[in-house]
Amino acid sequence: MRWAKRLKRVFQIDVETCPKCGGSVKVIACIEDPPVIEQILTHLASKDLPGLQAESRAPPAPRIGLPH
Predict the structure, then answer these.
(1) Which of 2, 7, 15, 16 is least surrounded, with the fewest CB atoms within 10 Å of its CB?
(2) Do the Cβ atoms of 32 and 38 come closer than 8 Å?
(3) Is 24 strand, coil or helix?
(4) What is the pLDDT of residues 2-56, one digit of tens each?
(5) Predicted confidence band of residue 60 (pLDDT cuts 50, 70, 90)
(6) Could you count the other beta carbons within 10 Å of the beta carbon of residue 46?
């Protein structure tokens, strides 16, 4: 199973479909080296780019009374 299919199946993240228009997206790179990821994220955080901030949401509701 490809990693993109696993993301969709387990986390409901579809990296092959554009969230805005629903069109097909082609993955051209997969960066897995932690120092490179940190460098990219640090660089992006220093920019004022729309759409890069995670949307705020409430924490999950506690699961009271459910068996463990």
Answers:
(1) 2
(2) no
(3) strand
(4) 888 888 899 888 988 988 899 998 888 889 999 999 999 889 888 877 666 666 6
(5) confident
(6) 8
User: In this structure, what DSSP letter does residue 58 have?
Assistant: P
Please count the other Cβ atoms lying within 10 Å of the Cβ belonging to residue 14.
14
Tell me the C-alpha distance between 43 and 9, whole Å.
Answer: 31
Contacts 24+ apart (CB under 8 A), 32-40: none
Neighbours of 55 (CB within 10 A): 5
Strand partners, 17: 24
Handedness of CA 58, 22, 3, 51 (dihedral sign): negative
